[in-house]
Structure to design on (590 residues):
């Protein structure tokens, strides 16, 4: 049994924490951040009133919060985690945040003698509930090997990608590819439909060849059927592409099609689609073509 | 045994014709178009001196030529196929040409009473040799059902997508997705590498999740290793994206990321890369980033 401070029990964090509790670990929540989940408290999770107090009790401090500023706040603000960190403890940031800021955050944590892993996930709420998340980890091999049993309670496809930052870099790379593969399928299906072919039959014919992808299978089907309930919300993918685009700017490089996909997500938001599934990017292409693939 | 006039015995057409001959069919070549393959002639293929003369002898006339003007020339020029077409014959265009012109070409052929199928392929020279081509067919169900045994001698993943033109539309959709998935992997790996991660490990970590695709598997490996011998040449993918972009213009729609990928292929050609494998599109992204992922 390991004692784990878990900060950020939203749509993703709550089921992840629940899987850790089911595996026999002692959870500690701080209700300064958000209310502690009542069912997990009823099953024995402790509740304290600051990130610092939670970290004092725990061997692992897991963060699952919206973005870079929230990670910095939980760790480094007054009554934050860093005030009590010491050797033997490990901070695991499973949020999706800036890969570039992560290197600085990791260095500050390690100054205390504690370990740091960046370990963002993909797979969404369903993956979190089913303990089937993909987990992309950055950090030392020793810290990774020690934390692996905890990751295995929450995910399935778990990889140490490199040093601190590499997990977040890998997550951004994942979100670039998923967005651009969605955009690719959208352009192809709108072209096919506007040219007179049945997009459902085109998608099926393409699934046997080099055009095949998880996105053609999953998001392509959503486009053909018009099932745009999330899923993964456009506003969350916009946040991830902002990490890519601001990161690229800081690195002095350009990501032309990522910028284009972000523009198309922005166009969806103007159509009222911030809460649509990201496969609804096709609606922006349909607007440009003045043509819907769903007759 | 069926008698088949086969026009266009280049890198793709020659092994396709050879597979038809091995399956027991009688081939007829016209040496007006290109020299008849000597080995197939030694095995019993006939040689005549015009497309018209070849068509007079054959139940099926298969075309495997570079682009739309060559198809029109073989069919409709003086001493062309159309001069002798009659009911009971079928023209199968397996070239990759304009989907929009294909509808006109099919209508002109059908005026003679003959049948028409557009049946472009993907899978490249290796797929042609191994009878493993993906074949995307447009035409009537009856003509498709009758020709299917011939397709099965040349390919594996064979689909009737819709009426005439739908095969060519599907091929263009295929080439849009493959180009844009290559571009996606290129942006992601250059970003990851420039941000300090190992692109090989990032690619491996991504292969278990929603970013996975045939392109990440096959072309992603080429990018990481820098093996850019074709494969599928950039100049051929440029031709296919031109069909997409000119088709989109004719249809009054835009394909923003297809245009961007074409610009990046153009940049590769300026670097001397018209004969590189299309996965070398990453070199254009590397130029923009002033960074190679291969140390």
């Amino acid at each position: 049994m390991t004692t784990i401070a878990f900060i950020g029990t939203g749509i993703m964090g709550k089921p992840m924490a629940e899987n850790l509790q089911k595996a026999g670990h002692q959870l500690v929540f701080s209700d300064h951040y958000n209310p502690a989940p009542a069912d997990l408290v009823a099953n024995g999770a402790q509740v304290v009133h600051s990130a610092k107090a939670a970290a004092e009790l725990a061997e692992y401090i897991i963060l699952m919060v919206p973005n870079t500023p929230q990670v910095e706040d939980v760790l480094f603000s007054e009554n934050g985690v860093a005030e009590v960190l010491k050797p033997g403890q490990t901070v695991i940031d499973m949020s999706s945040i800036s890969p570039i800021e992560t290197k600085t955050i990791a260095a500050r944590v390690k100054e205390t003698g504690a370990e740091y892993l960046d370990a963002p996930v993909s797979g969404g709420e369903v993956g979190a509930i089913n303990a089937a998340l993909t987990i992309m980890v950055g950090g030392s091999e020793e810290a990774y090997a020690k934390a692996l049993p905890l990751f295995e309670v929450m995910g399935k496809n778990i990889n140490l990608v490199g040093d601190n930052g590499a997990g977040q870099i890998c997550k951004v790379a994942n979100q670039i590819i998923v967005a651009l593969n969605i955009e690719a399928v959208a352009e192809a299906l709108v072209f096919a439909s506007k040219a007179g072919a049945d997009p459902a039959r085109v998608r099926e014919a393409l699934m046997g060849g080099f055009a095949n992808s998880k996105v053609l299978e999953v998001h392509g089907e959503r486009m053909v059927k018009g099932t745009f309930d999330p899923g993964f919300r456009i506003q969350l993918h916009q946040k991830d592409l902002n990490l890519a685009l601001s990161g690229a700017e800081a690195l002095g490089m350009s990501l032309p099609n990522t910028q284009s996909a972000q523009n198309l997500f922005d166009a969806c938001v103007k159509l009222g689609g911030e809460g649509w599934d990201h496969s609804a990017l096709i609606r922006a292409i349909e607007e440009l073509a003045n043509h819907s693939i769903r007759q």
In short: Residues 166-194 of chain B form the longest helix (29 residues). The domain at 3-163 of chain B is CATH 3.40.50.720 (Rossmann fold). Chain B has two domains: 3-163, 170-289. The first strand of chain B starts at residue 3 and ends at 7.
